[in-house]
Design a protein that fits this description.
11 helices; oxidoreductase; EC 1.1.1.1; binds zinc ion; six-stranded parallel sheet; cytoplasm; zinc; alpha/beta; 380 residues; globular; binds nicotinamide-adenine-dinucleotide; seven-stranded mixed sheet
Length: 380
Protein backbone atom coordinates (compact mmCIF):
# COMPACT_ATOMS: atom_id res chain seq x y z
CA UNK A 1 0.00 0.00 0.00
CA UNK A 2 1.45 3.38 -0.90
CA UNK A 3 1.96 6.06 1.74
CA UNK A 4 -0.61 8.26 0.01
CA UNK A 5 -3.49 5.76 0.36
CA UNK A 6 -6.41 7.38 2.15
CA UNK A 7 -4.66 10.78 2.15
CA UNK A 8 -5.35 13.95 0.22
CA UNK A 9 -2.70 14.30 -2.52
CA UNK A 10 -1.42 17.73 -3.51
CA UNK A 11 -0.31 17.87 -7.12
CA UNK A 12 -0.28 19.99 -10.26
CA UNK A 13 -3.35 20.35 -12.42
CA UNK A 14 -4.13 22.58 -15.41
CA UNK A 15 -7.29 24.42 -14.41
CA UNK A 16 -9.70 26.02 -16.89
CA UNK A 17 -10.99 28.97 -14.83
CA UNK A 18 -12.98 30.57 -17.63
CA UNK A 19 -14.18 29.73 -21.14
CA UNK A 20 -11.52 30.25 -23.80
CA UNK A 21 -8.82 31.52 -21.38
CA UNK A 22 -5.45 29.67 -21.23
CA UNK A 23 -5.35 26.89 -18.63
CA UNK A 24 -3.52 27.81 -15.42
CA UNK A 25 -1.14 25.40 -13.69
CA UNK A 26 -2.29 25.19 -10.05
CA UNK A 27 -1.56 23.11 -6.97
CA UNK A 28 -4.77 21.18 -6.28
CA UNK A 29 -5.89 18.83 -3.53
CA UNK A 30 -7.15 15.48 -4.78
CA UNK A 31 -9.32 13.65 -2.23
CA UNK A 32 -9.03 9.87 -1.79
CA UNK A 33 -11.29 7.68 -3.95
CA UNK A 34 -14.69 6.84 -2.47
CA UNK A 35 -16.93 3.80 -3.01
CA UNK A 36 -16.40 2.28 -6.51
CA UNK A 37 -13.76 4.88 -7.40
CA UNK A 38 -10.04 4.72 -8.09
CA UNK A 39 -7.35 7.38 -7.90
CA UNK A 40 -5.01 7.31 -10.89
CA UNK A 41 -1.56 8.81 -11.38
CA UNK A 42 -1.73 10.12 -14.94
CA UNK A 43 1.51 9.68 -16.92
CA UNK A 44 0.39 10.83 -20.38
CA UNK A 45 -2.67 12.61 -21.63
CA UNK A 46 -3.53 13.98 -25.06
CA UNK A 47 -5.75 16.72 -26.33
CA UNK A 48 -8.95 15.90 -28.25
CA UNK A 49 -11.32 18.28 -30.04
CA UNK A 50 -13.97 17.62 -27.41
CA UNK A 51 -11.74 19.21 -24.73
CA UNK A 52 -11.44 22.28 -26.93
CA UNK A 53 -15.23 22.47 -27.53
CA UNK A 54 -15.93 22.44 -23.76
CA UNK A 55 -13.09 24.84 -23.03
CA UNK A 56 -14.49 27.28 -25.61
CA UNK A 57 -18.00 26.52 -24.25
CA UNK A 58 -19.66 27.87 -27.40
CA UNK A 59 -22.95 26.03 -27.70
CA UNK A 60 -22.05 23.96 -24.60
CA UNK A 61 -23.08 24.64 -21.03
CA UNK A 62 -20.23 26.47 -19.31
CA UNK A 63 -19.03 24.55 -16.25
CA UNK A 64 -16.06 26.33 -14.63
CA UNK A 65 -13.61 26.14 -12.95
CA UNK A 66 -12.96 22.75 -14.41
CA UNK A 67 -10.15 20.26 -15.02
CA UNK A 68 -10.52 19.08 -18.63
CA UNK A 69 -8.89 16.08 -20.32
CA UNK A 70 -10.20 12.62 -21.18
CA UNK A 71 -7.66 10.86 -23.39
CA UNK A 72 -4.95 9.44 -21.13
CA UNK A 73 -2.98 6.60 -19.65
CA UNK A 74 -1.84 6.10 -16.05
CA UNK A 75 -1.32 3.82 -13.07
CA UNK A 76 -3.78 3.17 -10.24
CA UNK A 77 -2.50 4.78 -7.00
CA UNK A 78 -5.27 3.63 -4.66
CA UNK A 79 -8.80 2.25 -4.75
CA UNK A 80 -11.98 3.04 -2.81
CA UNK A 81 -14.43 0.74 -1.05
CA UNK A 82 -15.97 -2.16 -2.96
CA UNK A 83 -13.45 -1.95 -5.83
CA UNK A 84 -12.50 -5.51 -6.75
CA UNK A 85 -11.59 -5.21 -10.44
CA UNK A 86 -8.59 -2.90 -9.98
CA UNK A 87 -5.63 -2.64 -7.61
CA UNK A 88 -2.80 -0.15 -7.02
CA UNK A 89 -0.15 -0.55 -9.72
CA UNK A 90 -2.55 -1.54 -12.50
CA UNK A 91 -1.92 0.20 -15.83
CA UNK A 92 -5.14 1.81 -17.03
CA UNK A 93 -6.88 3.99 -19.59
CA UNK A 94 -9.64 6.23 -18.16
CA UNK A 95 -12.61 6.54 -20.53
CA UNK A 96 -15.25 9.31 -20.89
CA UNK A 97 -18.08 6.78 -20.94
CA UNK A 98 -18.47 3.70 -18.80
CA UNK A 99 -19.73 0.24 -18.10
CA UNK A 100 -21.55 -0.60 -14.86
CA UNK A 101 -21.89 -4.25 -15.96
CA UNK A 102 -25.39 -4.48 -14.44
CA UNK A 103 -27.80 -2.44 -16.56
CA UNK A 104 -29.72 -3.59 -19.66
CA UNK A 105 -27.15 -2.02 -21.96
CA UNK A 106 -24.17 -3.57 -20.23
CA UNK A 107 -25.91 -6.97 -20.30
CA UNK A 108 -26.74 -6.61 -24.00
CA UNK A 109 -24.06 -7.76 -26.41
CA UNK A 110 -25.09 -5.06 -28.85
CA UNK A 111 -25.06 -1.91 -26.74
CA UNK A 112 -22.38 0.17 -25.02
CA UNK A 113 -24.80 2.88 -23.83
CA UNK A 114 -24.59 2.13 -20.08
CA UNK A 115 -27.50 3.63 -18.10
CA UNK A 116 -25.33 4.62 -15.14
CA UNK A 117 -22.05 5.74 -16.70
CA UNK A 118 -22.95 6.90 -20.21
CA UNK A 119 -21.18 10.15 -21.14
CA UNK A 120 -22.54 13.20 -19.33
CA UNK A 121 -20.93 16.43 -20.43
CA UNK A 122 -22.66 18.67 -17.89
CA UNK A 123 -21.85 16.72 -14.73
CA UNK A 124 -18.86 18.15 -12.87
CA UNK A 125 -19.02 15.92 -9.79
CA UNK A 126 -18.71 12.24 -8.87
CA UNK A 127 -21.85 10.07 -9.07
CA UNK A 128 -21.40 8.56 -5.59
CA UNK A 129 -21.94 11.72 -3.52
CA UNK A 130 -22.43 14.48 -6.11
CA UNK A 131 -19.19 16.10 -4.90
CA UNK A 132 -15.90 16.98 -6.58
CA UNK A 133 -12.67 15.26 -5.50
CA UNK A 134 -10.63 18.31 -6.60
CA UNK A 135 -10.22 21.51 -4.62
CA UNK A 136 -7.98 24.53 -4.21
CA UNK A 137 -7.93 25.90 -0.64
CA UNK A 138 -11.24 24.20 -0.02
CA UNK A 139 -12.94 25.59 -3.15
CA UNK A 140 -14.20 22.75 -5.37
CA UNK A 141 -12.98 22.46 -8.96
CA UNK A 142 -15.31 20.57 -11.31
CA UNK A 143 -14.58 17.29 -13.08
CA UNK A 144 -14.97 16.80 -16.84
CA UNK A 145 -16.48 13.64 -18.43
CA UNK A 146 -15.68 11.76 -15.22
CA UNK A 147 -11.99 11.69 -16.23
CA UNK A 148 -10.26 15.11 -15.75
CA UNK A 149 -6.88 13.89 -16.93
CA UNK A 150 -5.17 17.31 -17.05
CA UNK A 151 -4.04 16.62 -13.48
CA UNK A 152 -1.15 14.56 -12.12
CA UNK A 153 -3.73 12.59 -10.09
CA UNK A 154 -7.41 12.15 -10.80
CA UNK A 155 -10.34 10.17 -9.36
CA UNK A 156 -12.48 8.10 -11.73
CA UNK A 157 -15.41 5.67 -11.33
CA UNK A 158 -14.11 2.11 -11.64
CA UNK A 159 -16.57 1.50 -14.51
CA UNK A 160 -14.80 4.17 -16.58
CA UNK A 161 -11.36 2.56 -16.34
CA UNK A 162 -9.91 -0.09 -18.68
CA UNK A 163 -7.16 -2.24 -17.18
CA UNK A 164 -4.56 -2.91 -19.87
CA UNK A 165 -1.36 -4.85 -20.52
CA UNK A 166 1.33 -3.26 -18.27
CA UNK A 167 3.88 -3.64 -21.08
CA UNK A 168 1.91 -1.33 -23.39
CA UNK A 169 3.59 2.10 -23.84
CA UNK A 170 1.17 4.54 -22.23
CA UNK A 171 2.48 7.44 -24.33
CA UNK A 172 1.07 5.67 -27.42
CA UNK A 173 -1.95 3.69 -26.23
CA UNK A 174 -3.42 6.71 -24.45
CA UNK A 175 -4.94 7.72 -27.81
CA UNK A 176 -7.05 4.56 -27.71
CA UNK A 177 -9.11 5.97 -24.86
CA UNK A 178 -10.96 8.33 -27.22
CA UNK A 179 -9.99 9.57 -30.70
CA UNK A 180 -8.65 6.39 -32.23
CA UNK A 181 -11.38 4.08 -30.95
CA UNK A 182 -14.11 6.57 -31.95
CA UNK A 183 -13.05 6.22 -35.60
CA UNK A 184 -11.66 2.70 -35.76
CA UNK A 185 -14.60 1.09 -33.92
CA UNK A 186 -17.32 2.32 -36.33
CA UNK A 187 -15.45 0.68 -39.20
CA UNK A 188 -14.47 -2.65 -37.63
CA UNK A 189 -17.41 -3.09 -35.25
CA UNK A 190 -20.31 -1.55 -37.17
CA UNK A 191 -19.61 -1.12 -40.91
CA UNK A 192 -17.46 -4.30 -41.00
CA UNK A 193 -16.10 -3.97 -44.55
CA UNK A 194 -15.10 -7.22 -46.21
CA UNK A 195 -11.74 -7.82 -47.81
CA UNK A 196 -11.60 -6.18 -51.22
CA UNK A 197 -14.49 -3.78 -50.55
CA UNK A 198 -14.75 -0.07 -51.28
CA UNK A 199 -15.11 2.30 -48.32
CA UNK A 200 -15.74 6.06 -48.27
CA UNK A 201 -14.59 8.11 -45.26
CA UNK A 202 -16.13 11.57 -44.88
CA UNK A 203 -13.92 13.95 -42.87
CA UNK A 204 -10.19 13.30 -42.59
CA UNK A 205 -9.52 14.55 -39.06
CA UNK A 206 -8.17 12.19 -36.38
CA UNK A 207 -11.49 10.33 -36.16
CA UNK A 208 -11.83 9.88 -39.95
CA UNK A 209 -8.20 8.78 -40.27
CA UNK A 210 -8.80 6.16 -37.58
CA UNK A 211 -11.86 5.03 -39.56
CA UNK A 212 -9.60 4.73 -42.63
CA UNK A 213 -7.13 2.71 -40.54
CA UNK A 214 -10.02 0.37 -39.72
CA UNK A 215 -10.77 -0.03 -43.43
CA UNK A 216 -7.09 -0.64 -44.16
CA UNK A 217 -6.74 -3.42 -41.57
CA UNK A 218 -10.05 -4.94 -42.80
CA UNK A 219 -8.46 -5.32 -46.24
CA UNK A 220 -10.56 -2.75 -48.14
CA UNK A 221 -9.09 -2.32 -51.62
CA UNK A 222 -10.34 1.23 -52.22
CA UNK A 223 -10.60 3.83 -49.46
CA UNK A 224 -12.07 7.09 -50.74
CA UNK A 225 -11.38 10.09 -48.51
CA UNK A 226 -13.89 12.96 -48.75
CA UNK A 227 -13.03 16.34 -47.24
CA UNK A 228 -13.70 19.98 -48.07
CA UNK A 229 -10.15 20.80 -46.95
CA UNK A 230 -7.73 19.56 -49.61
CA UNK A 231 -4.75 20.02 -47.30
CA UNK A 232 -5.96 16.93 -45.40
CA UNK A 233 -5.35 14.70 -48.40
CA UNK A 234 -1.56 14.35 -48.33
CA UNK A 235 -1.48 13.17 -44.72
CA UNK A 236 -4.41 10.78 -45.32
CA UNK A 237 -2.32 8.65 -47.71
CA UNK A 238 -0.35 7.37 -44.71
CA UNK A 239 -3.62 6.04 -43.31
CA UNK A 240 -4.40 3.93 -46.36
CA UNK A 241 -6.66 6.44 -48.15
CA UNK A 242 -6.26 5.60 -51.84
CA UNK A 243 -8.39 8.29 -53.53
CA UNK A 244 -9.67 11.73 -52.67
CA UNK A 245 -12.79 13.68 -53.45
CA UNK A 246 -13.24 17.31 -52.49
CA UNK A 247 -16.99 18.10 -52.78
CA UNK A 248 -16.07 21.72 -53.61
CA UNK A 249 -14.31 20.63 -56.82
CA UNK A 250 -17.58 19.38 -58.35
CA UNK A 251 -20.78 21.06 -59.44
CA UNK A 252 -22.98 18.09 -58.51
CA UNK A 253 -23.64 16.42 -55.18
CA UNK A 254 -20.65 14.40 -53.95
CA UNK A 255 -22.80 11.27 -53.67
CA UNK A 256 -23.26 11.38 -57.46
CA UNK A 257 -19.52 11.81 -58.00
CA UNK A 258 -18.85 8.81 -55.79
CA UNK A 259 -21.52 6.70 -57.54
CA UNK A 260 -19.82 7.44 -60.88
CA UNK A 261 -16.34 6.38 -59.79
CA UNK A 262 -17.55 3.24 -58.00
CA UNK A 263 -20.06 1.78 -60.47
CA UNK A 264 -23.09 2.71 -58.39
CA UNK A 265 -21.81 3.43 -54.89
CA UNK A 266 -19.46 2.30 -52.12
CA UNK A 267 -19.99 -0.83 -50.03
CA UNK A 268 -19.56 1.07 -46.75
CA UNK A 269 -19.22 4.69 -45.73
CA UNK A 270 -18.22 6.26 -42.44
CA UNK A 271 -19.14 9.89 -41.68
CA UNK A 272 -16.69 11.66 -39.35
CA UNK A 273 -17.46 15.37 -39.88
CA UNK A 274 -20.45 16.37 -37.75
CA UNK A 275 -21.81 18.21 -40.81
CA UNK A 276 -25.42 17.35 -41.70
CA UNK A 277 -24.89 17.57 -45.47
CA UNK A 278 -21.92 15.21 -45.22
CA UNK A 279 -24.13 12.82 -43.23
CA UNK A 280 -26.77 12.80 -45.97
CA UNK A 281 -24.13 12.35 -48.69
CA UNK A 282 -22.47 9.55 -46.73
CA UNK A 283 -25.79 7.70 -46.68
CA UNK A 284 -26.78 8.36 -50.28
CA UNK A 285 -23.35 7.36 -51.68
CA UNK A 286 -23.65 3.70 -50.60
CA UNK A 287 -24.61 1.07 -53.14
CA UNK A 288 -28.22 -0.13 -53.54
CA UNK A 289 -28.89 -3.59 -52.19
CA UNK A 290 -26.08 -3.86 -49.65
CA UNK A 291 -24.46 -0.51 -48.85
CA UNK A 292 -24.15 0.53 -45.19
CA UNK A 293 -23.42 4.05 -43.91
CA UNK A 294 -22.33 4.71 -40.31
CA UNK A 295 -22.65 8.16 -38.72
CA UNK A 296 -20.03 9.14 -36.13
CA UNK A 297 -19.83 12.95 -36.20
CA UNK A 298 -21.73 14.93 -33.58
CA UNK A 299 -24.28 17.15 -35.39
CA UNK A 300 -25.40 20.69 -34.62
CA UNK A 301 -28.33 20.56 -32.19
CA UNK A 302 -30.82 21.84 -34.79
CA UNK A 303 -29.80 19.51 -37.63
CA UNK A 304 -32.43 17.40 -39.41
CA UNK A 305 -31.52 14.39 -41.58
CA UNK A 306 -33.48 14.53 -44.84
CA UNK A 307 -33.44 11.86 -47.53
CA UNK A 308 -35.94 10.25 -49.87
CA UNK A 309 -37.42 7.08 -48.30
CA UNK A 310 -36.86 5.24 -51.58
CA UNK A 311 -33.19 5.07 -50.58
CA UNK A 312 -34.22 2.69 -47.79
CA UNK A 313 -36.53 0.71 -50.12
CA UNK A 314 -33.51 0.34 -52.39
CA UNK A 315 -31.82 -1.43 -49.47
CA UNK A 316 -29.31 1.15 -48.38
CA UNK A 317 -28.75 0.95 -44.61
CA UNK A 318 -28.09 3.86 -42.23
CA UNK A 319 -26.56 3.34 -38.79
CA UNK A 320 -24.91 5.45 -36.11
CA UNK A 321 -22.58 4.60 -33.29
CA UNK A 322 -21.07 5.99 -30.11
CA UNK A 323 -17.46 5.31 -29.05
CA UNK A 324 -17.21 2.81 -31.88
CA UNK A 325 -19.62 0.44 -30.10
CA UNK A 326 -16.81 -0.48 -27.68
CA UNK A 327 -17.66 -1.35 -24.09
CA UNK A 328 -14.83 0.57 -22.40
CA UNK A 329 -13.73 -1.90 -19.69
CA UNK A 330 -14.45 -5.13 -21.57
CA UNK A 331 -13.24 -4.23 -25.06
CA UNK A 332 -10.39 -1.69 -24.84
CA UNK A 333 -7.81 -4.15 -23.41
CA UNK A 334 -8.08 -6.20 -26.61
CA UNK A 335 -7.58 -3.10 -28.78
CA UNK A 336 -4.37 -2.47 -26.81
CA UNK A 337 -3.34 -6.06 -27.61
CA UNK A 338 -3.92 -5.40 -31.32
CA UNK A 339 -1.42 -2.55 -31.04
CA UNK A 340 1.02 -4.78 -29.13
CA UNK A 341 0.70 -7.39 -31.93
CA UNK A 342 1.52 -4.66 -34.46
CA UNK A 343 -1.90 -4.94 -36.12
CA UNK A 344 -2.51 -1.22 -35.53
CA UNK A 345 -0.27 1.77 -36.11
CA UNK A 346 -0.80 4.49 -33.52
CA UNK A 347 2.47 6.40 -34.02
CA UNK A 348 1.21 8.13 -37.15
CA UNK A 349 -1.60 9.79 -35.17
CA UNK A 350 0.91 11.37 -32.79
CA UNK A 351 2.21 14.50 -34.45
CA UNK A 352 3.33 16.54 -31.39
CA UNK A 353 4.48 16.14 -27.80
CA UNK A 354 4.78 18.73 -25.00
CA UNK A 355 5.57 18.78 -21.28
CA UNK A 356 2.58 19.30 -18.94
CA UNK A 357 3.73 22.83 -18.09
CA UNK A 358 3.31 23.69 -21.80
CA UNK A 359 -0.21 22.28 -22.16
CA UNK A 360 -1.54 25.49 -23.69
CA UNK A 361 0.71 24.83 -26.72
CA UNK A 362 -1.28 21.64 -27.39
CA UNK A 363 -4.41 23.85 -27.69
CA UNK A 364 -2.59 26.12 -30.17
CA UNK A 365 -1.52 23.18 -32.34
CA UNK A 366 -5.08 21.89 -32.48
CA UNK A 367 -6.66 25.30 -33.10
CA UNK A 368 -4.18 25.97 -35.94
CA UNK A 369 -5.09 22.61 -37.46
CA UNK A 370 -1.43 21.53 -37.17
CA UNK A 371 -1.83 18.48 -34.97
CA UNK A 372 -3.72 15.21 -35.09
CA UNK A 373 -2.72 14.28 -31.57
CA UNK A 374 -0.39 16.11 -29.18
CA UNK A 375 0.81 13.95 -26.29
CA UNK A 376 1.19 15.80 -22.98
CA UNK A 377 3.88 14.34 -20.72
CA UNK A 378 3.10 14.75 -17.00
CA UNK A 379 6.76 14.34 -15.95
CA UNK A 380 8.82 17.29 -17.14
P1 LIG B 1 -11.85 17.34 -37.20
O1 LIG B 1 -12.44 18.71 -37.12
O2 LIG B 1 -10.38 17.17 -36.99
O3 LIG B 1 -12.15 16.72 -38.65
C1 LIG B 1 -13.37 16.88 -39.33
C2 LIG B 1 -13.06 16.98 -40.85
O4 LIG B 1 -14.31 17.03 -41.53
C3 LIG B 1 -12.26 18.23 -41.25
O5 LIG B 1 -11.11 17.85 -41.98
C4 LIG B 1 -13.27 19.02 -42.12
O6 LIG B 1 -12.63 19.72 -43.16
C5 LIG B 1 -14.17 17.91 -42.63
N1 LIG B 1 -15.50 18.35 -43.05
C6 LIG B 1 -16.30 19.26 -42.46
N2 LIG B 1 -17.45 19.41 -43.16
C7 LIG B 1 -17.37 18.56 -44.22
C8 LIG B 1 -18.23 18.25 -45.31
N3 LIG B 1 -19.43 18.84 -45.45
N4 LIG B 1 -17.83 17.33 -46.20
C9 LIG B 1 -16.62 16.72 -46.09
N5 LIG B 1 -15.75 16.99 -45.07
C10 LIG B 1 -16.12 17.89 -44.16
O7 LIG B 1 -12.71 16.46 -36.21
P2 LIG B 1 -12.41 15.04 -35.52
O8 LIG B 1 -11.73 15.25 -34.22
O9 LIG B 1 -11.80 14.11 -36.51
O10 LIG B 1 -13.91 14.58 -35.17
C11 LIG B 1 -14.83 14.27 -36.21
C12 LIG B 1 -16.24 14.17 -35.67
O11 LIG B 1 -16.36 13.08 -34.76
C13 LIG B 1 -16.71 15.39 -34.89
O12 LIG B 1 -18.05 15.68 -35.24
C14 LIG B 1 -16.65 14.93 -33.45
O13 LIG B 1 -17.55 15.67 -32.64
C15 LIG B 1 -17.07 13.52 -33.63
N6 LIG B 1 -16.85 12.62 -32.48
C16 LIG B 1 -17.78 11.59 -32.33
C17 LIG B 1 -17.71 10.71 -31.27
C18 LIG B 1 -18.70 9.55 -31.20
O14 LIG B 1 -18.50 8.65 -30.40
N7 LIG B 1 -19.73 9.52 -32.02
C19 LIG B 1 -16.68 10.89 -30.33
C20 LIG B 1 -15.73 11.93 -30.49
C21 LIG B 1 -15.84 12.78 -31.58
ZN1 LIG C 1 -24.38 -0.21 -17.43
Amino acid sequence: MSSTTGQVIRCRAAVAWEAGKPLVMEEVEVAPPQKMEVRIKILYTSLCHTDVYFWEAKGQNPVFPRILGHEAGGIVESVGEEVTDLAPGDHVLPVFTGECKQCRHCKSEESNMCDLLRINTDRGVMIHDQKSRFSINGKPIFHFLGTSTFSEYTVVHVGCVAKINPLAPLDKVCVLSCGFSTGFGPTVNVAKPMKGSTVAVFGLGAVGLAAAEGARVSGASRIIGVDINSSRFEQAKKFGVTEFVNPKDHNKPVQEVIAEITDGGVDKSIECTGNINAMISAFECVHDGWGVAVLVGVPHKDSVFKTHPVNFLNEKTLKGTFFGNYKPCSDLPSVVEKYMNKELELEKFITHEVAFSEINKAFEYMLNGESLRCIIRMEE
